[in-house]
Amino acid sequence: MRILLLVHSFNSLSQRLYVELARDGHELSVELDIHDRVTSEAVQLFRPDLILAPFLKRAIPAALWQRHLCLIVHPGPPGDGGPSALDWAILRGVDRWGVTVLQAQAELDAGAVWASASFAMRTARKSSLYRHEVTEGAVRAVRAALERIAGGLGPLSARNQEPQHGWQPLLRQAQRAIDWTHDDSATVLRKIHSADGFPGVEDRLFDRCFRLFDAQPEMHLAGRPGVVIARRHGAVCRATRDGAVWIGQLQPVDGPQRNFKRPAVLALGALADALPATDDDPSDGEPADGHAAGAYASRGGEIRYEEYGAVGYLHFDFYNGALGTVQCERLRAAYARARRRPTRVIALMGGSDFWCNGMHLHCIEAADSPADASWDNINCIDDLARDILLTDTHLTIAALQGSAAAGGVFLALAADRVLARSGIVLNPHYRNMGNLYGSEYWSYLLPRRVGAVRAQSLMARRLPLGAVEARSLGLIDDHAGPDAATFRAHVDALAAELAADGRFTQTMADKCAERARDEQVRPLADYRSAELEQMRMNFYGFDPSYHIARHRFVYRTPHAWTPLHLAQHRGTARVRREPTSA
Ligand code: THG
Question: For residue 56, which atom of ligand 1 is closest to its CA?
Fold first, then answer.
């Protein structure tokens, strides 16, 4: 089928459906929902059999849904409707939820139901539920709907109607406002989770107005309800009626640098100075005697280390996968500690939602000199990539539980083995960020895995890649899924196998010899300085594209037109199709 994805933005769900449907053999194109006239033009150019809307905030005009089959992916079960479906479900604490594929008509979300999927709810941020349960459900439901179409069948029911659900209005700030004197920690977490990563919960801190994101429970600290009682790295801890919660990210609502999020301590500036700090990284301590045989996991936080036998697992769960200079320095230190352990294999686990997305564009935007901050950030990530590449004590596995983009993808390629959860999406390119050249030794790592020709075409293609496609190109070694637990079992098995292999010493020696040979051909430092020369131009040169693109990214400025690599129907991009393995 020819399927046009009509979307508010090419978000994670749209990207996942794009790679899945392309894999099924459908002809795809993407149009951003900018104006009804532009959408009609796209339909005339592409002549789709189906218009699919996985993430759309506006009504599809009658002229379109009357003439073409238009299917909406709604993040709620059959019968549910409205713009804040998942928000309401989290706030109300329901234990099951769903995804419905319904047909567009005049009345929003009231059309015929073509398919649906159901899932158990989990205590997590909205964005995390969206990236896992909603996305997996949507892939299943969209496939089911496409099978009905292919089989000449109609919808399951003529109207999106179920007695236990109905239209839910837009969820307003007042309806999730936190009452710090009365709400318990579970309620505070539900409210913040229901609005993460958009729009956040509006609240006052130190007499300033912010939107709150990235809440986590605190198990021990307590204080007078509503008082900010501590900080740890970028996060601040605020007392509730029955305990306390951590708040990782704040978006100032007023002031000169308002309306984009950043680590709470950075947003508060001097206001956070007086807070007692508990800045020990959870992985700072060596495991207590006798624990080496079993598992030890330290208390929560972004960086976490566990160890089972000869395998160390280093977790780094940074908000939105953004690896800023400070996070990167802490991660380098944690990696160095992991290397000092008497283990044989280190699994680099990233976070559960993202493995890593490279530079911290929000922190860079908030810096006095975004160019200097960009330079520091890329150099620190390069240092980390080099640490991983030059590891002569351990075999390393990059275990991608979550998606990765830009520098995050190439950081993963620095490991000896790269494994991905089957449902993740990779964006192994930089150019969508204002033609950024990129570093992280990509010019060494990418051709090493896929060859020079495919490396160039991947970088130029600018489109997401599924785990299946990434493996067939050789970008990653393997994938496993569908869920996080199955993937982890796969990582455990590979790590244990590598660690127990009688040829381990020989494998290490081969790895070091290969690195030495590559160093003879062209030193790593050479790749780095050539990449950074280009990056210096991106940061400090005459062309401000990167700074403009970053500004638009952090402020979520809507696109004015659909980029041509997405809008296949608009021509030129057609010459750059899939870098297929055939
Ligand atoms: N039929 C048609 N078009 C559609 C849908 C449909 N377009 C997408 C839509 N379903 C997806 N669901 C909704 C439901 C409600 C709202 C938006 C998308 C909504 N929007 C508010 C408004 O327009 O005022 C603003 C919401 C916001 O700010 O986020 O209510 O079934 N033809």
Answer: 8
Q: Which residues have CB under 8 Å from 536's CB, separation 6+?
A: 375
Residue nearest to atom 18 of ligand 1 (CA): 57
211 and 343 share a domain? Answer: no
The closest-lying atom of ligand 1 relative to the alpha carbon of residue 102 is 31
Q: Model pTM? A: 0.95
Q: Do 206 and 70 belong together in one domain?
A: no
Domain annotation covers residue 557: no
**How many structural domains are present in the chain?**
3
Ligand 1 binding pocket (C-beta < 6 A) is 53, 56-57, 59-60, 65, 72, 82-83, 104-105, 108-109, 111, 170
Residue 116 sits in a domain whose CATH number is 3.40.50.170
Output the domain CATH number for residue 221.
3.10.25.10
pLDDT per position as a tens digit, 523-575 = 999 999 999 999 999 999 999 999 999 999 999 999 999 999 999 999 854 44
Whole-number pLDDT of residue 280: 67
Cβ atoms of residues 250 and 215 within 8 Å? no
Is 567 domain-assigned?
A: no
Percent share of the chain, pLDDT over 90: 93
**Closest ligand 1 atom, residue 104 Cα:** 1
- Strand order, beta sheet including 50-53: 27-32, 2-7, 50-53, 70-74, 96-103, 113-120
Find the domain containing 244 and state its range. Answer: 179-272
CA of 82 to the centre of ligand 1 (A): 7
The answer as to whether 564 is a domain residue is: no
Q: Are residues 492 and 365 in the same domain?
A: yes
- 105 shares a domain with 15: yes
| Cβ within 8 Å of residue 421, ≥6 positions away | 400, 401, 402, 467, 479, 480, 481, 482, 484, 487
Mutate to test the pocket of ligand 1, among 109, 160, 165, 556 (most ligand atoms within 8 A of CB): 109
Question: Which residues does 533 contact at the CB level (< 8 Å), separation at least 6?
Answer: none
Residue 316 and residue 252 in one domain: no
Ligand 1 centre distance from Cα of residue 198 (Å): 16
